[in-house]
Amino acid sequence: MASQQPPSGRAGADPADGALDTPLGRAAALMVAWLALLWLLVGIDAILDHRLLSGFGIRPRTLGSLPDILTAPFLHTGVEHVAANSTGLLGLGLLAALTGIRRFLAVTLVIVVISGLGAWLLGPTGTVGVGASGVVFGFLGYLLLRGFVDRRPVDVILAVGVALGWGYLLFSIAAGGPQVSWQAHLFGFLGGLLAAWLLRRRRRPARRPATPGTPPLPA
Questions:
Q1: pLDDT of residue 187
Q2: Alpha-carbon gap, residue 117 to 77, rounded angstroms
Q3: pTM for this one?
Q4: Is residue 163 a contact partner of residue 116, using CB atoms and an 8 Å limit?
């Protein structure tokens, strides 16, 4: 059996192999996986006769339902519900994840907790709250404020683009109805603003150049 030395370098590597090494590639992979999970859970919940909704949705002011604020955004009442949230979640989530997955996960956690607490505290008695719309509004608030608190021109331009493309959602932030949780929308948006502030990039103060003739201080 003949042996052969493996070729050195990556000259023959497929360019697609490094797609996940880029911020866009990682963000896209994460959001596609997230959406796939949401659609999968809709199917599982239908098979289980909606027992996931009743077991892991938010029941307002029920102490035992507090942990459900972490699971409710992953559940939906059906295909129409998850489809209505998919476009906003994919678009805004992708933009929010471009600056880093770890930061994105922290942002998402803040939004989920604040949105869920709002729905838990103020939601109508006897209802069960589920859906990712609060997270969608949270990403909207986060992206609108992030550029200004980070003071990065590219993020400011992105915020303007988000306002032009998705700003219409602000007019429906308090939209009510028997099957719409305006509480999750409003507190999700506020959670996004809070996340942008808490997770802002802090700049180090610039070092002043030494004045000519001034002796250096000992370290």
A1: 96
A2: 20
A3: 0.82
A4: no
